[in-house]
Amino acid sequence: MAAHAGPLQVEVWRGTDTGRFQTFAVPRRAHQTVLDVVTEIQRAQDASLAYRFACRVGMCGSCAMTVNGRPRWTCRTRVSEVAGGDDRLRLEPLRNFTVVKDLAVEMTRFFDKWRDAGGAFEPAAAPAGDFAVVPPSSPQRQAADAGIECIGCGVCHSACDVVAWDPDYLGPAALNRAWTLVNDVRDAGNGARMAAVSGRGGCHACHTHMSCTTFCPKGIAPTYAIAGLKRAMVRRAIGRR
Ligand code: SF4
Ligand code: SF4
Ligand code: FES
What we know:
Elements: E1 8-15, E2 19-26, H1 34-44, E3 64-67, E4 70-73, H2 79-82, E5 88-92, E6 99-101, E7 104-105, H3 108-116, H4 139-147, H5 155-159, H6 161-165, H7 172-182, H8 190-198, H9 211-215, H10 222-237
Parallel strand pairs: 1-5
Antiparallel strand pairs: 1-2, 3-4, 3-5, 6-7
Helix pairs in contact: 3-7, 4-7, 7-8, 7-10
The structure holds iron/sulfur cluster (SF4) (2 copies) and FE2/S2 (inorganic) cluster.
């Protein structure tokens, strides 16, 4: 680690939709992540600080926050990547979510939108007697695999301008989930799913800003998933599927 003159100066949002920033001084440590910093503040300086994490290894999606103005997963974000030369961090809750307290946001509506987008697998009426064989090289399997590693962190939802101005927009994560299922050849729910993503707040509300794709920490491209949904809508409209 490079030598640093003093501790990190960390501005942390305290409150709900109204509140203020509180500044903490936190020692720099080798390989320190942003989540390490928040945890150190909570354990050593102010036990009332609210934030959320579970896995600490980029699996659970619960630790996302706004770090120096950008949405990020904090357990996999090193301080050295984001603190400028002045060793400052500004930590805020994710945008486009209701703040529960400090850095913790309410995720219920976010996941309700997954449900509303038809984001649950629908089995066929008569389940197959054996495991389905889906060739990894098939176009549908590749399209589904491209979005399946989503961890539900909300970073894309936080980055999306359309989510910010249209509360009914299903958003990039829910639409990405719908696209993985549209391409799941075992699923039997595409009629209702396509109706759900075609309506108001569906895929046509996306203005292709690409912020979701730019910020997704898993390298998923919801923008392309949404474009796929738009193409699928057209194919269904002209009776080709
Ligand atoms: S591409 Fe669409 S979903 Fe993604 S940030 Fe832009 S408007 Fe939102
Ligand atoms: S698509 Fe990416 S940014 Fe959006 S919730 Fe999933 S993992 Fe997070
Ligand atoms: S704590 Fe689980 S993804 Fe960061």
